[in-house]
Design brief:
The chain is an alpha/beta fold. It has 3 domains: about 5-135, Alpha-helical ferredoxin (Fumarate Reductase Iron-sulfur Protein, Chain B, domain 2); about 150-245 and about 400-470, 3-Layer(bba) Sandwich (FAD/NAD(P)-binding domain); about 250-400, FAD/NAD(P)-binding domain. The chain is about 35% helix and about 15% strand. It has helices spanning about 5-10, 20-25, 35-45, 55, 65-75, 75-85, 90-95, 105, 120-135, 155-165, 185, 195-210, 225-230, 260-270, 300-310, 330-340, 405-410, 440-445, 450-470; strands at about 150, 170-175, 210-215, 235-240, 245, 260, 290-295, 315-320, 340-345, 345-355, 360-370, 380, 390, 395, 400, 435-440. The protein has a 5-stranded parallel beta sheet, with helices on both faces. The chain has a 5-stranded parallel beta sheet with strand order 6-14-7-8-9. Strands 10, 11, 12 and 13 form a 4-stranded antiparallel beta sheet that branches. Strand 8 (about 315-320), helix 16 (about 330-340) and strand 9 form a beta-alpha-beta unit. The longest helix is centred in the last third of the chain and has 21 residues, at about 450-470. It is globular.
Length: about 475
């Protein structure tokens, strides 16, 4: 039965089935369980199929969302998968971790009624169904070009770039510094939000395209960019190493035992299985301990929810603004609160204190919101005389990252900003060094998976053009930002 626009607008957005909070806080299994076929079709049928769909414009890689929703509504799940994969090589990942509420779903006309189409849930459903059934069509790859491209970093930017270049017939090698490919998808995002077997399946898809992965390969240490281009015979290189150097708060006591960066904390747990008995790189024993996480983004939510699953007796977010200003996805905040996370807002840390070199407490200060700052969020202002102490056993600092300088120190021709990011031509990802392109967090600073993928795809198109024409630059040169 065909529904009218008025009838569609009265329909309720489907709810994602999920583990009960009382159960999931004790395990690392995925929280969201996925839609059934019936739920997926029902949700897709809510789409108004706009003549000029704003959801497509809201997607950083411009997936044909209206087309794939129509296919799901008709039960053509294989067709929907093909439509998505035409623009997004990692749909099962993006369907889980992308901030759809700020992008495609945020642009949906139904968002005015607070019930946009659940585009992320449907993308995940389509990708999962194809993977579990094993009915993905064989990859289509162009004839070999004889050109070789080095991709440095196997995170979302590098994987997206590698996919498009391999499809174009180029020989692609991805270099990863850690012992497993996937970058932040592997070491940064917990199993309960992004199962690692899904990342592995997506990477296997790249291997089917002919992409080669070299792990434990720290470019800038074992090889420089010049080594890759001049000695090892690569015709071009793409830098997608992300922003893996953690930022700290610069307050007393951050060197105490028990204070982690979120980067170290999550890498130990996600990649090195620190929660397993006899782990080589265990984290501080969290059983019944008090754990405070500083920050308000998705990484902070990942950290505090991980701490709960490691047995923390109290796990809390300490954030200097209000919950309204938190950059974390609303779903993540909701899940964290349901699991028992305490969210302490309008509070900033002043110092950590300890005994015998080990963290025991923290000095905090209450804040009030003032005028907006450069980010558009209201600036937190200290309230005089509001300082107080709180006992804490473990602290995790999750206030952002910056690019690791190791690679960039060995390539002085690359122009950098004062924040340590690489300067590129925005339209192509070309750097100031011939044959070298860059994209993702190494250019923008910490951002989203889908934005990094968009940058990787944009650079792939420019690399393909460069390899075909041999033309490098049009006379302009990116300038470093002071």
């Amino acid at each position: 039965m065909t529904l009218t626009k008025r009838e569609k607008m009265k329909l309720t957005r489907v709810a994602m089935p999920e583990q009960e909070p009382s159960e999931r806080r004790w395990n690392f299994e995925e929280v969201n369980l996925g839609l059934t076929e019936a739920l997926a079709v029902s949700e897709a049928q809510r789409c108004l199929f706009c003549a000029n769909p704003p959801c497509v414009a809201g997607c950083p890689v411009n997936i044909g969302i209206d087309t794939f929703l129509a296919q799901v509504a008709e039960g053509d799940f294989a067709g929907a998968a093909a439509t998505i994969k035409g623009d997004n090589s990692l749909p099962a990942i993006c369907g889980r971790v992308c901030p759809q509420e700020e992008q495609c779903e945020g642009a949906c006309v139904l968002s005015n009624k607070d019930k946009p189409i659940a585009i992320g849930y449907l993308e995940r459903f389509v990708a999962d169904r194809e993977r579990m059934r094993g009915d993905a069509p064989p990859p289509v790859v162009a004839a070999p070009t004889g050109k070789r491209v080095a991709i440095v970093g196997s995170g979302p930017a590098g994987l997206a770039c590698a996919t498009d270049l391999a499809r174009a017939g180029h020989q692609v090698t991805v270099f990863e510094a850690l012992h497993a490919p996937g970058g932040v998808l592997i070491y940064g995002i917990p199993e309960f939000r992004l199962p690692k077997d899904i990342v592995a399946a997506e990477i296997d898809g790249l291997r089917d395209l002919g992409v080669t992965f070299e792990t434990n390969a720290v470019i800038g240490l074992i090889d420089t960019l010049d080594d890759l281009l001049e000695t090892e015979g690569f015709d071009a290189a793409f830098l997608g190493v992300g922003a893996g150097l953690p930022r700290f708060m610069g307050i007393p006591g951050e060197n105490l035992v028990g204070v982690y960066s979120a980067n170290e904390f999550l890498t130990r747990v996600n990649l090195m299985k620190a929660y397993a008995p006899g782990a080589d790189t265990p984290v501080f024993d969290l059983y019944r301990k008090r754990v405070a996480v500083f920050g308000g983004g998705n990484t902070a939510m990942d950290s505090v929810r991980t701490a709960l699953r490691l047995g923390a007796g109290w796990a809390g977010i300490v954030y200097r603004r209000s919950e309204e200003e938190m950059p974390a996805r609303k779903e993540e905040v909701h899940h964290a609160r349901d699991e028992g996370v305490d969210i302490v807002t309008l509070t900033a840390p002043l110092a950590f204190t300890g005994e015998d070199g080990t963290l025991t407490s923290m000095r905090l200060q209450k804040m009030a919101l003032g005028e907006p700052d450069a980010s558009g969020r209201r600036r937190p202002v200290p309230i005089e005389g509001s300082e107080y102490d709180m006992a804490v056993d473990v602290a995790v600092v999750a206030i952002g990252n910056q690019p690791n300088p190791l690679l960039l120190k060995t390539a002085p021709e690359l122009l950098q900003t004062r924040w340590g990011t690489v300067v590129v031509d925005e339209a192509t990802g070309r750097t100031a060094k011939k044959g070298v392109f860059a994209g993702g967090d190494i250019v923008t600073g910490g951002a989203t998976v889908i934005l990094a993928m968009g940058a990787g795809r944009k650079a792939a198109a420019a690399i393909d053009d460069y390899l075909s024409t041999g033309e490098w630059w049009d006379g302009s040169t990116p300038e470093a930002v002071a």
